[in-house]
Input
Amino acid sequence: MSEGNFTLDGEDIPFQEGQTIMQAAMAAGKYIPHLCYHPEFKPHGSCKLCTVRVNGRATASCTQRAASGAVVESNTHAINDERRALLQMLFVEGNHFCPSCEKSGNCQLQATAYELGMMSPHYDHFFPNRPVDASHPEYLLDFNRCILCSLCIRASRDVDGKNVFALSGRGIKTRLIVNAKSGRLADTNFSEADKAAHVCPVGVILKKRKGFAQPIGGRTFDLNPISATPHPTIKEG
Amino acid sequence: MIENLETANNPEKLRRVAIDPISRVEGHGKVTILLDEQNKVHQVRLHIVEFRGFEKFIQGRPYWEVPVMVQRLCGICPVSHHLAASKAMDIIVGARHLTPTAEKLRRLMHYGQILQSHALHFFHLSSPDLLFGFDSDVSQRNIVGVAAKYPEVAKKGVLLRKFGQEIIRHTAGKRVHGTGSVPGGVNKSLTVAERDALLKDIYQIVAWSREAVAMVKDLHNQNPGLYNSFGTFRANMMSIVGNEGGLDLYHGKLRGRDENGKLLFDGVDYQGYSDLIAEAVKPWSYMKFPYLKSLGEKQGWYRVGPLARVQNCDFIPTPLAEIERREFVDYCGGTPMHAPLGYHWTRMIEMLFAAEMIKDLLHDDDLLGSDLMVTGPRELEGVGVIEAPRGTLIHHYRVDEDDLVTMCNLIVSTTHNNQAMNEAVRHVAKRYLNGRELTEGLLNHIEVAVRAYDPCLSCATHALGKMPLEVELLDAEGMLLDRMTRGSDESTSGCRIT
Output
């Protein structure tokens, strides 16, 4: 397998043929902000938070294959400004109330916002009306916090072989749905053993009756910033 | 009850003075006064003009989120809401008896809250009035003025509050809006290092709390004419009391006394509070007026908080606070004290009680335990009651089988005291404002009465000391006659329009 090098913010990063810029950067211990990317799944390229400049052109680092000699810029003032704007749009499109959210401290959206120094939502809130689905005896779906990363869809389809989740609608009306006639999680074969039960980077798919069992100070991102632990194993309760 | 001052007969012929918002009181409160041409007072009302809506938007949320969400009602006493909601949710998850570690950690958190809130209430918000005089120079009448003239008093007030906040931080994870209490128990115990850090300071805290009681006692003794009569009216009182009738601010049964101290009810399980209390609505305030059903709306209103609690209990189960309670009872001559300024005295007795309770708890190794949670048979409805710094706090929820909240009813301390605070401002207005040209100092008398009860009118969070005050005089046609404003720096300016 052939190898090569590219530079990321001026540092040499080695890669193997077939690796994306994101994969090579992570293997080298370099953090590129992202939300829809997960090393165990095929890249989706939808959140655009991992956008970098390769030889001056903007591209998603989770889908762009590394090329020898490429000059990649990531941690620049201009790129981080754009990432903050994307984060702000994600916050205002949903209902993200960190103060009373049980995923607070374990949430990758919140941790990324801290990492990038997002100080306010900036844009007007949409305040969408998204009722929660509490029909399943063990799991709660709080759609208010969905960022449409599709990780649960990929996990359920590609790992669990179940297709419990899907995206429906187009454009700004895109939303996460449950593949059941009733639209309720209770009417699917979703279970705690599913990979999809454990990949949500925000607070949509939640184990019931476990919220706030972890004390402040012991939560994942209380201990390390997301740049140090981009894909931690989050303990539930 | 000064009924004739609640609603004037011919309000259209009177001019209106508004204290809006009330300063050194958190939340949006307003007092309106209607005067005739001779400045005679015809109507006085304390309005709560803020609408929060927590009871509605908690519906449809999972029950385990509630103790963390509802505490956002308040930035001064969030722990009280956190714990009252947790106690209600204990019933929902079938945890009727917590583990000793969980129960004691919650008590520690609560007494830390009582300590910090009582210190804030007395030293930061009320002591400027008491030390300098109600109508003293407004530029001095604040905590910064206290720090300049009585630096030791201010310093102790600040450090007492800080210690209470440290207790909260170690038990809830944060000084404000933590997550320590969860349905069925707590999510952490104390480490040895945390316990020892608190133990290091607690004896000084007890000593300073004793000094605080002595200070407020001295104020009463130096000017009994003022302290015993200012805004005074007779009222029923209600609180929870603990085992055998002792003062207990975390758990107990409901007890009520009439204005003479005679028991109205005792040993009432608060799960049935709705059989005891009803709430009346008046068109001029967002805040309801609770009353005892057995006595009816006119006679059944009552006061809650330190003045009610210290006189409602049979004893205080810590030695130093019990000595102070007895001295207070002796001072009152065996009959209940009804003076609003007595709230400060009893508040400081409670602060001493909280300090002693913290000291005792810190010597209990159960705080270091690891058995934190219990559950039992699931239930669909639960009530949690706690004695918050300002008084009895009731949280009532129904939760469906899918774990979502379907109903929420909150009766906060301020609401229990609504009629009492209205009575207090009416008495003060009648005694001090009647027939006199209004000044900022005179209007501050009204605020002193409100602050004696509550520095936190709607459980809202606002920056301390940043409240501007604007008073307007209007004639019968609504024409602006006079305006007086106080900026956020408490500087005063006036402009005579006509």
